[in-house]
Amino acid sequence: SQFSRSVLAGANLSGALLDEANFSSADLRGANLAGASLRKANLRGARLDEAHLQSANVVNALLQNANLSRADIATATFSGADLTNARLEGALAQGGDFSRANLRAASLRNAIFTGANLSGANLSGADLTGADLTDAVLDQVVWGRNQTTGCKGCP
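Below the sequence we write its predicted structure tokens.
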């Protein structure tokens, strides 16, 4: 499916099957994608700020430079996803699965990752200022050049 550059702000796509869809540079601000399947979807540069992705399947999706600020991504599965340079400021990601995700140079300022699985994730250069990683699984996480001022649960 081709949704590149589409304006879908506030759309209700909950539970939708959108595997491998192209949402590059799409406007999905405030959209409801709860429980949606976005496996291997292209969301590069997409606007997902304040979107609802609770329990969404975003495995191996491409989200470089995407904006997920203040998005509700609790219990969503982002394992193997590429979130390089993505903005997740203030995102609610508690209980989410980010195993093997690439979060290199991502902004996770004030994001809530309590109880999230970040095992094997690449967090090098990520900004974790004010983030909460309490009880998160951090096995084999790649760290380096991180901003961690006020981060709870950061090493």
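Residues 85 and 106 are 4 Å apart (CA to CA).
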